[in-house]
Amino acid sequence: MAELELASLSDEELAASSSENDEACSALISRYLPSVRRLARMYTKSAADFDDLVSEGILGLFSAVKTFSAGKGASFSTYAGTCMNNRMLSALKKSARIRNREEALGDISAPEGSSPEKIVLDREVLSEIFSEISENLSELERSVIGLYLSGASYSDITKSLGITRKAADNALSRVRRKLRKKFR
After folding, report:
1. 62-84 pLDDT, tens digit each
2. Which long-range contacts (CB under 8 A, 24 or more apart) does 44-50 make?
């Protein structure tokens, strides 16, 4: 399709044709990039956070483009805004959890000048924790959590493992439940 033709299409029309036409997908993402930036600015405190949130927002927008269904009643604009917002909020929550864990680990990490024995013992404890986790998770759960922690999206996880989105979500829920139970 010509660029002029794409510009004249509605968001919903572009979303519908994006599965067969990469140019339509690109046009729609370009159209919503200012919205992604505006939303990211609302949540950020630093330039590094802004760039990360813009990336997350674009991933949310891409997900919206790929999963939008006009028959469900919402406009593409509303759906995309929700997907972008949810993705950014999830990233902020994950970042906060990581910072909290790092602070907690900072309290128990080996201070400067620690003895080599202490470092080895700490590593053994961490190794024991990881083996405990792997023993309590099924093969599917280990695969899903491994991909998830490496940054894979739900669609990447489902494609890689040949499972449904619901199966991936259920596996992650089981992992969370088992880890909470084990480490509380």
Report:
1. 888 888 887 888 888 899 999 99
2. 49/95
Residue pointed to by tokens 């695969």: 143
Which of 109, 130, 152 is the C-terminal boundary of a domain?
Answer: 109
The answer on 184 and 138 residing in a single domain is yes
CA dist., res. 170 & res. 180, Å (int): 15
Are the C-beta atoms of residues 141 and 179 closer than 8 Å to each other?
no
CATH assignment of the domain containing 170 = 1.10.10.10
Are residues 174 and 94 part of one domain? no
Name residue 136's amino acid.
N
In this prediction the pTM is 0.53
pLDDT one-digit tens code per residue, 116-169: 777 777 777 777 666 766 678 888 888 888 788 778 888 889 998 999 999 999
* 76 Cβ neighbours under 8 A, 6+ residues apart: 10, 11, 12, 14, 15, 28, 64, 68, 70
Q: Looking at the 3D structure of the chain, how many domains does it have?
A: 2
Q: Domain containing 14: what range?
A: 1-109
Last residue of one domain, picked from the residues 109, 140, 159 = 109
